[in-house]
């Protein structure tokens, strides 16, 4: 095979042309980078958001301006969704399909998450903090996984699910009990679902970022506390959302089709 043909063949494995992706929390720190990256690979992206619509609308406008074409369909749309509400999750999937002309759905990425910025010790963790963590991080992921298991395309082996865990599951840092436990639930559900989807061609994997420079990371931390995380990092810096998005792009592409039921520690070597 000629060099140019080989390069084109390899590149094609990573492209997502014609596929429809849903990204929950898609206007947040990592979610925004994922939404932009998937769009750059050719996917049409439903950006899920909750609360203030401005960041999602601005992100969608930017994506559509960058990837303008002659089609009447946009490259991205914003859809409000509280992922802890089953009715809203179903509506998110319906809206994603409808926005792109009733298209099949191919990709789900669940980045929506919450964290108590006061970082309470377990002995001081309120039921409200626990319920919030499990309501969004675990229940929200469960509802999205359930919908995806019934809705993602089973043709051509292109159905892809990527959930988001955290390196905090293994680090056992004080103050992260409820959050880490909710993310451990995400890992377990993802692995079980991957096996339950045997024969469908749909893969399910989790990405577990380390300390990443997002509003969620900086929330409630002093400059000194944030600096300690940097000092502990083997690569001498925090991760950035743009470090995480390409891993998601790989996992949802044809190139990543043989990776299944895994938790990818995309963390720069942090524990």
UniProtKB/TrEMBL annotation:
Gene Ontology molecular-function annotations: oxidoreductase activity, acting on CH-OH group of donors
Highest taxon listed in the record's lineage: Eukaryota
SUPFAM superfamilies: NAD(P)-binding Rossmann-fold domains (SSF51735)
Gene3D superfamilies found in the cross-reference section: NAD(P)-binding Rossmann-like Domain
PANTHER family for the chain: NAD DEPENDENT EPIMERASE_DEHYDRATASE FAMILY PROTEIN, EXPRESSED, NADPH-DEPENDENT ALDEHYDE REDUCTASE-LIKE PROTEIN, CHLOROPLASTIC-RELATED
Organism: Brachypodium distachyon (Purple false brome)
Keywords in alphabetical order: Oxidoreductase
Record's protein name: Ketoreductase domain-containing protein
Domain Ketoreductase span(s) in chain numbering: 19-210
Alphabetized Pfam families for the sequence: adh_short_C2
Family as reported in the entry's similarity comment: Belongs to the short-chain dehydrogenases/reductases (SDR) family.
């Amino acid at each position: 095979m000629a060099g140019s043909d080989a390069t084109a063949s390899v590149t094609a494995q990573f492209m997502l042309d014609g596929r429809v992706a849903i990204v929950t929390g898609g206007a947040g720190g990592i979610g925004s980078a994922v939404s932009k990256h998937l769009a750059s690979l050719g996917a049409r992206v439903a950006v899920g958001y909750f609360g203030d619509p401005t960041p999602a609308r601005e992100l969608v406008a930017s994506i559509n301006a960058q990837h303008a074409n002659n089609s009447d369909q946009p490259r991205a749309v914003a859809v409000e969704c509280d992922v802890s509400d089953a009715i809203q999750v179903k509506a998110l999937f319906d809206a994603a399909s409808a926005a792109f002309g009733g298209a099949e759905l191919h990709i789900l990425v669940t980045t929506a998450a919450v964290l108590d910025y006061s970082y309470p010790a377990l002995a001081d963790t309120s039921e409200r903090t626990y319920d919030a963590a499990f309501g969004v991080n675990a229940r929200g992921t469960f509802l999205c996984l359930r919908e995806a298991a019934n809705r993602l395309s089973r043709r051509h082996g292109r159905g892809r699910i990527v959930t988001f865990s955290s390196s905090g599951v293994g680090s056992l840092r004080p103050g992260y009990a409820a959050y880490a436990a909710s993310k451990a639930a995400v890992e377990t559900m993802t692995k079980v679902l991957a096996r339950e989807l045997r024969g469908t061609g749909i893969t399910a994997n989790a990405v577990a970022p380390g300390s990443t420079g997002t509003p969620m990371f900086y929330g409630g931390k002093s400059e000194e506390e944030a600096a300690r995380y940097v000092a502990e990092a083997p690569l001498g810096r925090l991760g950035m959302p743009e470090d995480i998005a390409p891993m998601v792009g790989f996992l949802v592409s044809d190139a990543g089709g043989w990776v299944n039921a895994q938790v990818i520690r995309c963390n720069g070597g942090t524990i």
